Fold:
Amino acid sequence: LTGLTLNAPGKIRDSLIEVSNWFGNNVYPKIPSDMMGALEELSPDYIKNEFNPNHPDSEDVVYQSVSAACGKGTDHPINKLMIPFNHYVHDREGPNDGYVGEASARWGKLIETTRLSHLEQININVSGKNKGEWERLWLGIAKSLQNIEQEKNGSG
Structure:
């Protein structure tokens, strides 16, 4: 998905970045949006050649992840506005959450694979029918973190 946006013709890319920044600034007004910077740092080349070599896993950190699969290739629908992104990622990586391939989202211990879209995972456009799933997901993440803390302190 980063490649789709970064490699789009200049005016299209600039418009996508502008809309994304406007959206982000309105959803999270206290955090300035920088979609171009985010996309550049999330590109496969940057991750492979810059981030990962310069930030190896630490033995002092417990790595956990949540992956997601909805839309194309699944039985779970995705918001109509996300269908083009979902299909683009699916054609390159398989099942995904509209932005991130399900397989590439896995790092360390997989807590679970959810059917929520990327936006729904961060509580944007969570429909009434998926609100319970969103709450269950984040409660599960919190419980997983609590378990790590209890094991660390010898009380788990």
In short: The longest strand covers residues 109-114. The radius of gyration is 17 Å. The first helix runs from residue 2 to 6.
